[in-house]
Design goal:
CATH class of the largest domain: Alpha Beta
Number of helices: 4
Low-confidence stretches: 1-17
CATH architecture of the largest domain: 2-Layer Sandwich
CATH topology of the largest domain: Alpha-Beta Plaits
Mean pLDDT: 89
Radius of gyration: 19 Å
């Protein structure tokens, strides 16, 4: 995954804004936030985003240190460089927050997502869905005579590409976990 995804346009992301050379640059960043694993912490972190109108593209959270009672929240968010810096600073000032990492700027990282896709297909469309699933290394986790549930893990772009190909074949439902990410290397 590229270190920085940049979209030109205003916060409304209108196609007309793409033609404006003075439009602000909107970046996508992946933040890893280590917090106390206690009631209300996630609500406080999310409240920071909603209260200030910041967007969350993806959110995952799980306990990562049982003895220290710490959880890791991985947030994919978008904004101008100034907004991203403001988000990081505000998160860092919260009492239950122990560490805020911007994986997008700290160097190479590994990002993965898991998704389940329910596809209703028969005949040639069924065969095509199976062929594409094999190409994407998707696993069939449920099957009936008229449908499949595929499990796909990988970069967000892979998940989105698989969904795009399954839509005309009978995609009827999708469930996604959100991004899980770690920096690469020994640190």
């Amino acid at each position: 995954m590229s270190a920085l995804k940049i979209k030109k346009g205003s916060s409304k992301h209108s196609a007309y804004d793409l033609r404006n050379p003075n439009a602000e640059i909107i970046e996508t960043h992946t933040l890893a936030v280590v917090v106390d694993n206690e009631a209300g912490v996630l609500a406080r972190v999310i409240g920071l985003f909603s209260g200030r109108g910041y967007n969350i593209e993806s959110l995952t959270v799980a306990e990562v240190d049982h003895t220290g009672h710490r959880s890791r929240i991985t947030i994919v968010t978008t904004g101008t460089p100034q907004v991203i810096e403001q988000i990081k600073a505000q998160l860092g000032r919260m009492v239950p927050v122990h560490r805020v990492q911007d994986l997008t700027v700290e160097g190479p990282s590994v990002e993965r997502e898991l998704a389940l896709f329910k596809v209703s297909a028969t005949g040639e469309k069924r065969l095509e869905a199976l062929r594409l699933a094999d190409i994407f290394r998707a696993n069939v986790v449920d099957s009936t005579l008229e449908s499949f549930v595929f499990s796909v893990a990988g970069a967000t772009e892979k998940i989105e590409a698989f969904a795009d190909l399954m839509r005309p074949l009978g995609l009827i439902e999708t469930a996604r976990t959100g991004v899980a990410a770690l920096t690469r290397g020994p640190e």
